[in-house]
């Protein structure tokens, strides 16, 4: 488990590219038959990637958590971004295809990840937050997520939004999670940009074509910074930071939050004319 500590707006404004990347970018998520875990001190969110290829992978606890099992005091949201797989939670088996989401609540002792086909393995992006209440484990397919078309071709941000874990969807203690698929010809996400000082956010970019990338914007609105993101990389976004992006092609990304509330519409929008 790798730890990432909080950085204030003042110190972030003076970071060079290498420092920004080491603090906010998770460069490696998916390695065959390995689990990559990052512990962020923003709202104590854990994010990571799990890629079972030739064997099943058990999400065990870590010494840093001081818990008997991973979900003793936590909940977890899981979205598959690749081949078909299955997840077993305390003996209950869930088949999970690409873009499906599984929520597993506090108190589940054993979570095992598998792929159906080793030549096209599943790739699971996970977000886990502390939990003070228990909610039932639940699978939601992408078709059940009430996909909503938003944006326009004229502004290069026509996209489909899938909401999974939120107030009107899968119930959780504090997690909010979903994903956005940009349509062909559209490259901008989350613009006009916004902040929400009541909760942090994490992004996982996927389906970024080979030899393409995404320019992720972060920082305070009047002091923005940027990071170049490749396929299957993740960003930790502080509560005080904007989080927008523009790609050299269309792409998809998972978004997830934890903090003071679960309201999807809780955003403090920043007019484009005020960004610096």
UniProtKB/TrEMBL annotation:
Pathway annotation: Glycan metabolism; pectin degradation; 2-dehydro-3-deoxy-D-gluconate from pectin: step 4/5
Reaction equation(s) it catalyzes: 5-dehydro-4-deoxy-D-glucuronate = 3-deoxy-D-glycero-2,5-hexodiulosonate
Residues involved in Zn(2+) binding: 194, 196, 201, 243
Highest taxon of the lineage: Bacteria
Primary enzyme class: isomerase
SUPFAM superfamilies, sorted: RmlC-like cupins (SSF51182)
Classification via CDD domains: cupin_KduI_C (cd20491), cupin_KduI_N (cd20294)
This enzyme's EC code(s): 5.3.1.17
Cofactor: record remark: Binds 1 zinc ion per subunit.
Key words, A-Z: Isomerase, Metal-binding, Zinc
HAMAP family linked to this entry: KduI
Function: Catalyzes the isomerization of 5-dehydro-4-deoxy-D-glucuronate to 3-deoxy-D-glycero-2,5-hexodiulosonate.
The name this protein goes by in its record: 4-deoxy-L-threo-5-hexosulose-uronate ketol-isomerase
Protein's organism: Emticicia agri
Phylogenetic placement of the source organism: Bacteria, Pseudomonadati, Bacteroidota, Cytophagia, Cytophagales
């Amino acid at each position: 488990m790798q730890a990432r500590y909080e950085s204030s707006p003042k110190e972030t404004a003076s970071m060079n590219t290498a420092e920004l990347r080491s603090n906010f970018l998770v460069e490696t998520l998916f390695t065959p038959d390995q689990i990559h875990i990052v512990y962020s001190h923003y709202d104590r969110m854990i994010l990571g990637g799990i890629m079972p290829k030739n064997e099943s992978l058990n999400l065990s606890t870590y010494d840093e958590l001081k818990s008997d099992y991973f979900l003793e005091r936590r909940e977890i949201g899981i979205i598959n971004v690749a081949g078909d797989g299955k997840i077993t939670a305390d003996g209950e088996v869930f088949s999970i295809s690409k873009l499906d989401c599984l929520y597993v609540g506090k108190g589940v002792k054993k979570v095992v990840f598998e792929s159906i086909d080793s030549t096209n393995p599943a790739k699971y992006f996970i977000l886990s937050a502390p939990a003070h209440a228990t909610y039932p484990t639940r699978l939601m397919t992408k078709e059940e997520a009430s996909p909503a078309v938003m944006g326009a071709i004229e502004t290069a941000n026509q996209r489909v939004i899938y909401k999974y874990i939120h107030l009107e969807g899968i119930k959780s203690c504090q997690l909010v999670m979903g994903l956005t698929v940009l349509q062909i010809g559209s490259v901008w996400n989350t613009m006009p940009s916004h902040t929400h000082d009541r909760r942090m956010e994490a992004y996982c970019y996927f389906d970024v074509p080979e030899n393409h990338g995404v320019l992720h914007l972060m920082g305070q609105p009047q002091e923005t910074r940027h990071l170049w993101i490749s396929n299957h990389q993740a960003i930790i976004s502080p509560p005080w930071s904007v989080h927008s992006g523009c790609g050299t092609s269309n792409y998809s990304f998972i978004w997830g939050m934890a903090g003071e509330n679960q309201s999807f519409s809780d955003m403090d929008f920043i007019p484009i004319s005020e960004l610096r």
